[in-house]
Amino acid sequence: MTPADGRIVARFLPCLCFSSVLPSLLLSILFGANIASAQSAGPPPLIVTPSTLVLLVGEDYGLSAVDATGRPVSGAEWTISSPIASLHVVEGEVYLDAKSPGRATLTATLGGQSASAAVSVLTGPALPPGTVRWTLQPTPGYEALVVFQAFPSNGSSVAFHAIEWSKSSTAIVRALSSTGQQLWMTRLSSSASPQTLKRHLPPFARTFFNDEVVTNLRQILTGDPSLFASFDRPDLNVPGLPLDGNSILSRS
């Protein structure tokens, strides 16, 4: 179930809850295991995000055009190859209103450059289980290295961060919305590869808050100290914790 081409995909699984925004959409982030040689690593002049999209008749959905800076642009002209959906543009973002089943190519044109995305429309009360709702191709010349969920933040639409690597350039980070649209891109000062990717796990039974080890229960619980039971362990890192190796991770 791992795409060999390194696409980022979002699968639709009913009866599972991912967030309050998408109550029935679980985003399974996959990235390619086959690593290809990077050629001419660099952002393209124009891309459409997401790269592919599956809708139900009656649904509407937003896509955006992204330029070489990695940010959405306004002023693009949008066309669709088949009348399976109507479209309207709001502040540079195109919205599709699915009308009838079928497939079409959505194209954005700006400054003599064009880019496209594939759109499919299905009928029925819900998407079939396992349907890939959207996919996002890696930046040309790069391979997807790791994708992880962003920490929720008020006023931010970033749901995921994708790190992509290249043999001929430094790594990049792409910020993605839950709908597969790229919000921004930045280039790191160092390179990355599957061989150098390491995840440092905290020592077993340690608890973290704002990236610091919690040594006392009162650091993460508020209230009158007298309300804590006398048999509670105030030190969360002493022997006696469940041997599950779990950690609490919280960021301000």
Beta-strand portion reads 35-45%
CATH class division of the largest domain: Mainly Beta
Q: Average pLDDT across residues? A: 75
Low-confidence stretches: 13-40, 230-252
What is the count of helical runs? 0
Shape field: globular
Largest sheet: 6 strands, mixed
Reported CATH architecture of the largest domain: Sandwich
Return the structural class: mainly beta
Give, in spatial order, the strands making up the sheet with the most strands. 1-10-3-9-8-5
Q: Specify the helix fraction band.
A: under 10%
Helices and strands, in order, run as EEEEEEEEEEEEEEEE
Number of spatially distinct domains: 2
Task: State the distance separating the first and last CA atoms.
Answer: 35 Å
| Gyration radius, rounded | 22 Å
Structure summary, number of beta strands:
16
CATH topology of the largest domain: Immunoglobulin-like
Description:
The chain has strands spanning 8-12, 46-49, 52-56, 60-67, 77-80, 85-90, 93-98, 102-110, 113-122, 131-136, 143-149, 160-165, 172-176, 182-187, 208-209, 212-213. It is globular and about 65 Å long. By secondary structure, it is mainly β. Residues 13-40 and 230-252 have low confidence and may be disordered. Strands 1-10-3-9-8-5 form a 6-stranded mixed β-sheet, with no helix packed on it. A 4-stranded antiparallel β-sheet has the order 2-4-7-6, with no helix packed on it. A 4-stranded antiparallel β-sheet has the order 11-12-13-14, with no helix packed on it. It has 2 domains: 8-187, Immunoglobulin-like (Sandwich), CATH 2.60.40.1080; 200-252, no CATH class. Strand 8 (102-110) and strand 9 form a beta hairpin. The protein has no helices and 16 strands.
